[in-house]
Design brief:
The protein has 5 helices and 11 strands, in the order αβββαββαββαββββα. The chain is α+β, with helices and mostly antiparallel strands and 212 residues long. Strands 1, 4, 5, 8, 9 and 10 form a 6-stranded mixed β-sheet that branches. Strands 3-2-11-6-7 form a 5-stranded mixed β-sheet. A hairpin with a 4-residue loop joins β6 and β7.
């Protein structure tokens, strides 16, 4: 697990306490959520450990409240339906980036293979760097939610979470775990890394759910 107390987390907790970036404006119809500004580049944000993942040894595990636990190697992942989806990125640090073309596996196509138990309610997404983030199953199963392998036609780079990252476009981007290695289906909600450090449990950009 990444160390909980760092300069970065202290800064973010202080921002949370001060309500930094909160504008109080709400317009659910606007494409650009309140308090966001557009960028055309793609900033890199993470805890600073960017694991190098060997595809030959890579596995994606699906554990917890599922009917069948999965441990899929790269070939098994590639044998699942491959889909394309275009979506916008909204980062809690106030940048948004429009029209990202993702290719990968729809979260629903993967979860269909595992089957959900009745008590399943949320997921924890685990990254190979020790990062964890939580989200409701309903958000994880949104129609444009992906386990992405490609961005704008090219394999995801390591810095952006390659070989496989989550993309949950309708929530702030901290919910989109990079270097995804495990999807843990849980019952009641449990806080992930940033959620324990002042960020919101859900993170809807249009409701400005930046801080919890
Ligand atoms: N595994 C992992 N995933 C992560 C993070 C991280 O530190 N580790 N940071 C999150 C945060 S805070 C953001 S804003 C996005 C940034 O993704 P990007 O670097 O591709 O822009 O990744 C999210 N996913
Ligand atoms: Mo972020």
């Amino acid at each position: 697990m990444a160390e909980d107390e760092t300069k970065l987390t202290r800064t973010k907790r202080a921002w949370a306490a001060a309500g930094k970036f909160l504008t109080g404006r709400h317009d659910a119809d606007a494409r650009l959520p309140p308090g966001q500004h557009l960028v055309t580049d793609w900033p890199v944000l993470d805890l600073g450990i960017e694991p190098s993942i060997d595809i030959a040894r890579y596995r994606l595990d699906v554990t917890g409240f599922v009917e069948t636990r999965l441990s899929l190697d790269w070939a098994a992942l590639m044998a699942l339906p491959q889909s394309d989806a275009r979506s916008d990125i909204h980062c809690v640090t106030t940048w948004s980036r429009y029209d990202n073309d993702w290719r990968g596996i729809r979260t629903t196509d993967l979860l269909e293979r595992a089957g959900l138990m009745e008590i399943a309610g949320h997921v924890l997404l685990h990254g190979a760097d020790g990062y964890v983030t939580n989200l409701p199953l309903a958000d994880f199963c949104a129609p444009d939610a992906m386990l992405a392998t490609h961005w704008q036609g090219a394999p995801l780079t390591r810095e952006h979470g390659g070989p496989l990252r989550a993309v949950i476009p309708h929530l702030y981007f901290w919910k989109s775990a990079k270097w995804l290695t495990r999807i843990e289906v849980i019952g009641t909600d449990q806080a992930g890394f940033w959620e324990r450090n002042g960020y919101h449990m859900r993170g809807d950009p249009w409701a400005e759910e930046r801080y919890g």
